[in-house]
Specification:
Elements (H helix, E strand, L loop, with lengths): L1 H7 L2 H22 L26 H20 L25 H8 L65 E6 L8 E6 L2 E6 L3 E2 L3 E6 L3 E6 L4 E6 L3 H4 L2
Antiparallel strand pairs: 1-2, 2-3, 4-5, 5-6, 6-7
Amino acid sequence: MALEMRFGGDKKQMITLGVLGTVLLGVVYLNYFTGPPEATTAPVAKKPIPLKTVSAVPNAVVAAAEARKRKTNDRRAQEFRPRFGPARPEDRPDPMSVDPTLRLDLLARMERVQMTGGMRSLFDFSNVPSGPLRPEPKIIPIKATPSPKPFIGPMLPPAPMPVIVQPKPQAPPIPLKFYGFASSGRGANRRAFFLDGEEILVAGEGEVLKNRYKVIRIGLSNVTMEDTQFSQQQTLPIVPEAIGGL
């Protein structure tokens, strides 16, 4: 009774208790009836948006200027601009090393050159050449020769190839001189004497000299020899002057 009488009659205490109860109810509601507190993010500083510069020239004027510039570039690209000299600067001649002297002798030589081969000036378009006109060339068609008809029939055997006979090689002359002979009886067992340079060789019929020349027959005025390498015979006449030289 004493407590109720203490708090009941003070309005300020009642207002204070009401405010505290309201705050308490709010705290209970936030803790039990709402979700977890969301993570607070730091405010992102926004970049200043640059202001667009507004051109003072209208769009129509700018478009006309660009079209005029494009037309000028196209006309320059279509113009023929011959290039004199090499393209690279390092390949161009030095202008300080060029001789500017006029060659009057070359100009005088060009004036003396006579133009031949034409009757009309290249620099005068109104001048018509005088003289007879050349006849127009006539085109004569060439008659095509008929091709031979192909042969239809049995195939003939090809012609035999000609046989080429190689000539038989000839033996060189025998380098021996026959200057005499000797016999022991009536023409039997004759032995001939030969000269090979300064060397004297003696051989009878059937014998071989220098491992190559065979004595076939010994006569009174000549001797028949055979070159065994070529199997050819040669006749050597007697040389009387060789006897006097001994």
